[in-house]
Input
Amino acid sequence: MLLPLVALTGVAAFTFDLAVSRFATAAGEAEREAIPLARLSSSIRFLEPPAYGAYLGDDPRGVGAYEEAARRTRAGFNEVRSRLGQRDREEAALLRRAEASFEAADAELRRALGMPVEARTLVGLRGLTDFNQYVVDTVALLDDTETHALGRRQDKLLEARDTEQLTFVLLAAVCFAGLGVAMLAARRLAGTVLGPVRLLRAGAVRLGAGDLSHRVSLERDDELGDLAAAFDTMAADLQRSQDELAFRALHDPLTGLANRALLRDRLEHALSGLSRRKECIALLMIDLDDFKSVNDRLGHLAGDRALVATASRLVTCVREADTPARLGGDEFAVLLEDVAGEEAAIEVARRLCDAMRPPLQLDGDRVVLGASIGVVVAEEGAAADELLRAADLALYRAKETGKGRVERYTPDLAPVLDEAAVPGDALGSALAAGELAVCYRPVVSLGSGRVREVVALPCWPHPERGLLQPADLQPLAEGGGVAGRLTEWLLDAGCAELRRWSADSRDGARLRLGLSLAPAQFGDAGLVDVVVDTLDRYDVPPSRLVVGVAERTVVEQGERARTRLADLRRLGVRVSIEGFGTGYSSLTGLRRTPVDRLAVDASFVEGLGRPGVEGGLAEAVVSLARSLRLETVAEGVTDEQHVGALVAAGCRLGSGPRFSDSLDADEVGSLLALDAPVHWPEPALA
Output
């Protein structure tokens, strides 16, 4: 479209230039024709009567003047004749008549000049009339010639001007057409290039904001189309990874059943609408009988296959509306919604027991696994934790009274529950009385085997219950409202020991202290001041403190948690997200959270080496952390296979039974004083 327009514009410009040239030529010719005629008319006027007497006198100068005038007149006729040529016959005829009239006048005058001087006057007076008439005729003929030539020149000039104006109009039309084509081309450019670029930019903005469901969907067979396809592929991959992580956060990686978090969430939702239901809600707690012998005799891989087969049997025995879950190890649960009553729930439990009895074939070995089940039916106003504890008690009764049994929860089991529980306020009293102790979990460099960090954890040598572990104390601390005081006490004790270890050994001088923050502490405006005061009191640099926060806490606390963590990071304190992948956080939320490290959850580490997605979850978290330039630490490392897989994935730190159980302060000091790697059953990694 543009090429013909360019060619037309060139032709119009050439035509316009030619028209201008023609007009200039016509004007020049008119001027060249007008000047000789004017000179010729001027010459002829020297022959008019006022000069006649001078020509006939006896003064030779008069004769000379005439000769000069006649010469100029003849030269003028020749010049006009050469200018006019044969362009116009009428002009040529007029010019010839004028020239003949001049010659007749000249002959008349010369005849008089040939007479004696005395006779010239008389002759001249007689011939005055004839000579004068010849001159007048000549001037008149020249005027007619000039008038005719002037009309012809004006016609030529008008024609040239009209051509010039027409060509100008044509050129203007072509220019306007060119402008229109240019505007159409610009609109086409906007539609074919700028529009897709805007779509790509909008897609990049939405992708950067975390909208992974957005697709550019630009169908083009060029570079822009390839870029749009790359955007969509990247968004789809990120969406798939995030969905996978979200699924794994709520499901057991081995069996695909709901995990404890999802079971609890659905249980709370069901209990919230219990008063509006016509049917009942029941919870079944299931434990496999003699499962430990399978692991001991056939190994963990066979045990995993047995758990997968058990989960499959479990799913076939319940409805789609029910929620089967694996809580960990060989412990399962089923949430029954809208059951007719306790007897209907017990009937489902018995059906499950029957489904577990058929033997399993594991690599040629015949394995028989039974199941013990505790059943509880929810009453209005019941809480999720109460229902879970009641189901646990019923399960405990079922296992005590024999294998493969179903037991319902009855109120007479409540005293057992009360006896097993430790009051929350007792923990606060023990903390005030100095009865708690600090144990430290070593975090080891997977490459060198040296201890790089110790995590301070509370334990309680209870006079009646024995040693209560950190996992036992966490719900007591949060429920009794002493989580903040407990964390401050751990920070103080840990910093005091860190100063001592720094003075005693080389590894101690580089050691970092880890500390977990409770959810309630993010609402404490004095948290940062407590950390600053404690670090200053023991002269511990902020960079040697690592505060851990559960992923679910970051999601639930939102901006409040991010603000507190940002304040701590500004001090130089390092921040770690614990149990990453088991909460509900998105990639966008993670990017907005001030964090230095991701802790790979033990359940993901447990899946290393298994086929399929389950085996790659830990590696996926490590890869994500590396892409975000974050450090990673693996929790629950149990064997050398885990270590090798984590090192290959790029994880540099780990903790768990593979390296050491929790230690007291003196044991940590002795370990650091050895100035050697943690004991390895096999040679340490390079």
